[in-house]
Write a structure and sequence with these properties.
This protein is mostly helical. Helix 1 crosses helix 3 and helix 4 packs across helix 6. The radius of gyration is 23 Å and the shape is elongated.
Length: 172
C-alpha cells in the first residue's frame, strides 16, 4: 500500500482539527486552521501542545505526541455538554400571547438574562405565561435583529434569541 500525498494531507487535517478543538478549551494552544499543510502555524501549535502537556518540545508529531493529542481532544470533546434542541420542529409552530408551557418559561429566563446587557429591553415576569410583557420583549429583540416584528416566537426567532443569550452568557 502506497502512502499518497492525499493520505498525508488527510492526516495533517485530522491533526489540525484536533489541535483546533483543543485550542478552543486551552488558550495556551494557538489556533490552527485545518488546511492540510504542516506549516509554521501547525508546528507552533504542536510545540505549544507539547510544552503544555509535558512532552519533549520538537514541533513534530511522534507517536507519543499523537496519542496525547487524541487523548486530550477526546477528553475535552466528551466533557462538553451537548446542546438540547427543545423548540418543536413543527412547521408553523410559534409561541404566542396566551400560551402557558415550559418553552415560555425557558424563553422568559433567556429574555431576563439578556435584559442584564440591554437596559431598554422590556422586563418580563418568569411565570411560564406568555403575556404582553413577553410579547413586548420578543418584539424588541425582533426589531433590533431585523426580524419581522410579530411578538410571536417561531423557530427563527427562537434561534436568534438563543444565539443572543449564548453570546452574552459567554461574555466576561
Amino acid at each position: 500500500m502506497v502512502y499518497t500525498e492525499a493520505d498525508k494531507k488527510g492526516h495533517i487535517m485530522e491533526l489540525q482539527k484536533y489541535l483546533y478543538g483543543i485550542s478552543r478549551h486551552n488558550k495556551n494552544i494557538p489556533v490552527v486552521i485545518p488546511d492540510g499543510f504542516y506549516g509554521p502555524e501547525t508546528a507552533a501549535a504542536v510545540s505549544a501542545f507539547q510544552r503544555e502537556y509535558g512532552l519533549p518540545v520538537t514541533g513534530e508529531v511522534d507517536k507519543e505526541t499523537w496519542e496525547t493529542i487524541v487523548l486530550i481532544y477526546n477528553h475535552l470533546i466528551n466533557n462538553v455538554p451537548k446542546p438540547i434542541d427543545i423548540f418543536p420542529n413543527s412547521i408553523g409552530f410559534a409561541l404566542k400571547e396566551g400560551d402557558r408551557n415550559y418553552l415560555v418559561y425557558i424563553l422568559q429566563i433567556m429574555l431576563t438574562a439578556i435584559k442584564k446587557f440591554y437596559n431598554n429591553i422590556p422586563e418580563v415576569n418568569i411565570n411560564s405565561i406568555y403575556s404582553s410583557d413577553t410579547t413586548n420583549a420578543v418584539s424588541f429583540l425582533q426589531n433590533i435583529s431585523n426580524i419581522p416584528v410579530t411578538g410571536n416566537v417561531d423557530k427563527y426567532t427562537w434561534n436568534n434569541i438563543v444565539r443572543i443569550f449564548e453570546y452574552l452568557s459567554n461574555t466576561k
